[in-house]
Amino acid sequence: MPLDLDRTDRAIATFMRRYGMTALRVSLGIIFIWFGILKPLGLSPAAPLVEETVAWMPLFDPPAWVAVIGWWEVAIGISFLIPALTRVAIALLFLQMVGTFMPLVLLPEVTFQPGRAPYAPTMEGQYIVKNLLIISAALVLGGTVRPRDAGDETSA
Question: Which domain holds residue 138?
Fold first, then answer.
């Protein structure tokens, strides 16, 4: 019996359409909660980088800022897990992302290989740059918070 590739392709695409957004939302929620909670618990490998980045900031000392940022990330994650809070999650995420990219500017000696800025990031730099994917995922989820309008150019 020959494979019905079109039917198989349709079934796979239907599955992905049905569960993809939920999987994306849950994945973002888990990642932000998991990585975020490590910071106030003193278990985050990113803590030294965060401390160096926020050393200039007022109000708290760097370890306290690490905890604040960690709880902020937990709030982002929880918000992603509650569909009604998607807008809140995205707003918190975009505010957090400003700080996330700061080491690329403030600490190029840490985020880029010696003499190879801006094209050869270190492991820390790669960890930061991968956040472009998280921003893209948030944009995709943000596109689902309202039903498509009849005049929406993407509804065709």
Answer: 20-145
Task: Please give the share of the chain, as a percent, with pLDDT higher than 70.
Answer: 95
Q: Which of 117, 69, 57 lies closest to 95 in space, CA to CA?
A: 69
SS3 sequence, the chain? CCCCHHHHHHHHHHHHHHHHHHHHHHHHHHHHHHHHHHCCCCCCCCHHHHHHHHCCCCCCCHHHHHHHHHHHHHHHHHHHHCHHHHHHHHHHHHHHHHHHHHHHHHCHHHHECCCCCCCCECHHHHHHHCHHHHHHHHHHHHCCCCCCCCCCHHHC
Q: What is the pLDDT of residue 153?
A: 65
How sure is the predictor about 149, in pLDDT bands with cuts at 50, 70 and 90?
A: confident
**32: which 2 tokens?**
């932000």
Structural domain includes residue 4:
no
Given a contact cutoff of 8 angstroms between Cβ atoms, the answer to whether 101 and 131 are in contact is: yes
* Number of domains present in the structure of the chain: 1
Per-residue b or e along 109-136, where b marks 16 or more CB atoms closer than 10 Å to that residue's CB: ebbbeeeeeeeebbebbebbeeeeebee
